[in-house]
Design brief:
Chains A, B: Its EC number is 2.3.1.35, 2.3.1.1. Chains A, B: It holds the Pfam family ArgJ. Chains A, B: This is Arginine biosynthesis bifunctional protein ArgJ. Chains A, B: One of its GO terms (molecular function) is L-glutamate N-acetyltransferase activity, acting on acetyl-L-ornithine as donor. Chains A, B: Catalyzes two activities which are involved in the cyclic version of arginine biosynthesis: the synthesis of N-acetylglutamate from glutamate and acetyl-CoA as the acetyl donor, and of ornithine by transacetylation between N(2)-acetylornithine and glutamate. 2 copies of one chain form a homodimer. Chain A has 406 residues and is α+β, with helices and mostly antiparallel strands. Chain A folds into 2 domains: 258 residues, L-amino peptidase D-ALA esterase/amidase (4-Layer Sandwich); 122 residues, ArgJ beta chain, C-terminal domain (Ubiquitin-like (UB roll), Roll), CATH 3.10.20.340. Chain A is built from 11 helices and 15 strands. In chain A, the strands form 3 sheets. Chain A has a 6-stranded mixed beta sheet. A 5-stranded mixed beta sheet of chain A has the order 3-9-8-7-6, with helices on both faces. Chain A has a 4-stranded mixed beta sheet with strand order 1-2-4-5, sandwiched between helices. In chain A, helix 2 packs parallel to helix 3, helix 5 packs across helix 6 and helix 7 crosses helix 9. Chain A is globular and about 70 Å long. The interface between A and B is large, with 66 and 66 residues.
């Protein structure tokens, strides 16, 4: 189940960024479950990671390797998260980094490992090591579609987005792929996003860029409120486009690049929501009129996480009472209910804290029967706003998550 | 669907507390949907109410009437919450208070109104007023079972509990009824609880008592994390038992009474969980070893509200990785994952932050297949603990909440 269509785009190569996939037998179905990014010498790589205290072994290792060495490889597996696997989980991931790096005569710190899948089981390291030579042999600049498939778990569709721009007359490409369908409340959350560009960008500027764009995209989606142990959003810049390197966040080039990367990441993030486990609706929650950003987010998350609202969305039921109840318990200090206004798309349902005089059940029904619904909430107490994207809660969500391991 | 059995108990009369029910046609099915408590002159009445900013008209009125006058009547309806109904909602509720009080030659402030049901629709005041004379005529001391039925909405079973105790040689009775099955995360939430005793208790002591026992019972349950607009827990003390009035919270009588009332309220609260919408499991979440109570509650609520954990519970799947992920994102500052320990009933599943060596999938499966599951979490960083009760998330939950208004 998924909302709407998003055919996989034609993705051009990103000069300096090669990738390949292989099936190592981690997943039962014999699908490709390992992905390797090989990036040209001189590339910069930066990322943001899950804030979960039980972050997986590969997340810890990524953080360390990014500190100590220039990254040349991103080694990703699906089917097993290598999370809550203790010291052995760490040893397993490091061993794979070392085996891969050795093939290229480099140090293990040049490899960044990523895992997504079931928590608490050990990686099948032997199988994965045996698959490495074939994985390396397959690396090419034209494998973006295969890459997007190899990182899927409960996703029903591969997710990719691309755009091109010019930096001072030089053509630059930005490609991105992502995966994620459940345990999605990134901050960062098993959301994985890999974005690559051939632009030349200074390492510290790249780190700022990835943090800023994740804040606008992957950190503004939630499916079930469960922040995973493995989330990561990575940004690779090969520098092969030949542009004047971007060395300052104050530059025009930075703003242009940020806008392009943010566009790719927002597309990828919204694809994750549209492919959310059991999703039948794509829901934008837009909270305005807050006294500060924090209270806008509190209200948006309360609405996005309410099982009662999510089931009403699934039923196409304009049960707006559940929306105002969630606004009411979101924890906004001193909220004046009589100033609250709620619209579904362009239909005003709540005004002055109660049902709008103009509202009819038919109008609400019509909006709710669509696949794309915007919930606009005005708190009437300030000028701050926040926007989140989420899904409904369907029988299918329960089925997927009740059956996941069986 | 509901977990286990809880036959309605034989409830003795509470001297000085009469009650009656009638079907006013608020609900479609022709069931009794109005309940009246008439309490003897000289009784004390106290309550705790929802913290929802969109609290319903009757909640606001209750708070005002409790301030201004001695309460003689509790007038409750099911089928309509009279919430988010603006000024008219308030006028409607006050009119009913006035009509009732007039029949007894008293002021409207002696009436406390309560409503539960659909949000955002106006009360059918005419029908309700027409039903008042019959309601009054039916009032008796022996209608506890009918009363528990009249306040049900999506509940599948009436909920009652009773106990007796002695205060300084004087026999005292405590009776309670409650309702609630969804939108349950009381603080207070459409949870309603009415507890009556014939003990004599000073008004201010009664207020402390109801706050304390709600904190131990109704405020420690959550079904879907949705705090309702109408929650209330009321405590009535008629004083007819003839005991020396309880005038201090430091007295032995207070402690004895608190223990009895808490016992009744905990039974009622646990019945609400066991009758939770679509519930197939009764789950206790016991967090220990916290540095403070707040962080224990954060962890307990993160686990209780995780849709991934709730669906795994429904599937009897010991997917403990989802439990540690929730502990990890609960927001406990500086949590050391390697000190965390998790047990399901008596089976240790997580030790030192990863799967216990002794753990086998068969053990986990066995525990999870039961109807009653205790999740014991030790954070390993202090001496505080907290306990919550919750349910799983089933197809039936989705069905009930997707169909509620259709």
């Amino acid at each position: 189940m998924a909302v709407g269509e998003f055919p996989f785009p034609d993705m051009p190569p990103v000069n300096g960024v090669s990738l390949g996939t292989v099936g190592a037998g981690i997943k039962k179905q014999g699908r490709d479950d390992m992905l390797l990014f090989a990036v040209a010498e001189g590339s910069t790589v930066a990322g943001v990671f899950t804030q979960n205290a039980f972050c997986a072994a590969p997340v810890t290792i990524c953080r360390e390797h990014l500190q100590t060495s220039s990254s040349r490889f991103l080694l990703i597996n699906s089917g097993n998260a290598n999370a809550c696997t203790g010291e052995r989980g760490r040893t397993d991931a490091l061993q794979l980094c070392e085996s891969l790096a050795k093939q290229y005569g480099l140090a293990k710190e040049t490899v960044l490992p990523f895992s997504t899948g079931v928590i608490g089981e050990h990686l099948p390291v032997d199988k994965m090591q045996q698959a490495l030579p074939e994985l390396i042999a397959r690396v090419t600049e034209d494998a973006w579609a295969a890459a997007a498939k190899a990182i899927m778990t409960t996703d029903t569709r591969p997710k990719g987005a691309t755009c091109t721009l010019e930096l001072n007359g030089v053509a630059v490409t930005v490609n991105g792929i992502s995966k994620g369908a459940g345990m999605i409340n990134p901050n960062m959350a098993t959301m994985l996003g890999f974005v690559a560009t051939d632009a030349a960008i200074d390492q510290s500027v790249l780190q700022t860029l990835v943090r800023e764009v994740a804040g606008l995209s992957f950190n503004r989606i939630t499916i079930d409120g469960d922040t995973s142990t493995n989330d990561a959003c990575m940004l690779i810049a090969s520098g092969k486009a030949g542009n004047e390197p971007v060395v300052s966040t104050a530059s025009v080039d930075y703003q242009k690049l940020k806008s392009a990367v943010a566009d790719v990441c927002m597309q990828l993030a919204q694809m994750i929501v549209a492919d959310g486990e059991g999703a039948t609706k794509f829901v934008a929650i837009d909270v305005q009129g807050g006294a500060n950003h924090e209270e806008c987010l509190k209200v948006a998350y309360a609405v996005a996480h309410s099982p009662l609202i999510k089931t009403a969305l699934f039923a196409s039921d304009p049960n707006w009472g559940r929306i105002v109840a969630a606004i009411g318990y979101a924890g906004v200090e001193g909220l004046d209910a009589s100033k609250v206004r709620v619209r579904l798309n362009d239909v005003v349902i709540v005004e002055n804290g109660c049902r709008a005089d103009s509202y009819t059940e038919e109008q609400g029904q019509k909006v709710m029967s669509g696949e794309r619904i915007s919930v606009h909430i005005d708190l009437g107490r300030g000028n701050c706003s926040e926007l989140l994207w989420t899904t409904d809660l369907s029988y299918e969500y329960v089925r997927i998550n009740a059956d996941y391991r069986t």
